[in-house]
Amino acid sequence: MRFMIYLGFFATQSLGENQEQEGYILTATSRLLVKANPKTMSSVVLSMVDPFMVSPLHTLSTCFQGSESTPFMAAHGMKLWNVLEQNPDFGKNFHDAMANDSHVLMSVILNEGKGVFDNLKSLVDVGGGTGTTAHAVVRAFPHLHCMVLDLPNVVANLQGTDNVVFIGSDMFECIPRADAVLLKVLLRLLVTHCLGI
């Protein structure tokens, strides 16, 4: 808890009449971790501390010793995408985390970058998961046609709308044509995957 206080996730407050005891209180940062908060980031934290994500750190030194395998491959014998597919519980937590990340990030992007979306007619969200970002975009810009591209197992049971279409495919094989391509979290995930984090 002291480390979490140092990082600003919690603060201390004196309790009782004599203020002899200390208790922990939420800070602006920790409020993002409360599940009752509509913009909660708790699933992001839970996903990042999941053993599937933490265990590759134990093999990180192999990267520095010239190994051709990423730490994630060394720890699990497969790529992150395969782990997500073969472990439904971890996959659900991961996709929930990405959706939570989208809620917070897209409110900023849509407020600060309105001009970017005004002149677009179509957009493809590469690695768009369950479509949280695409739905936020079409709510703010109803004239847009959004395509969510993700692996077939991710989008298989998802229902689209008039403005949001789900496409099950591998981004390394083909990305649909659109006025713009959105790589919101994908680039960060690719970097962390390459590092094995």
UniProtKB/TrEMBL annotation:
One GO MF term: O-methyltransferase activity
Keywords on record: Methyltransferase, S-adenosyl-L-methionine, Transferase
Residue ranges occupied by any O-methyltransferase C-terminal domain in the UniProt entry: 66-187
InterPro entries per UniProt: COMT-like (IPR016461), COMT_C (IPR001077), SAM-dependent_MTases_sf (IPR029063)
Keyword S-adenosyl-L-methionine carried by entry: yes
Pfam family, one: Methyltransf_2
GO biological process: methylation
Name of the featured protein: O-methyltransferase C-terminal domain-containing protein
Organism: Papaver atlanticum
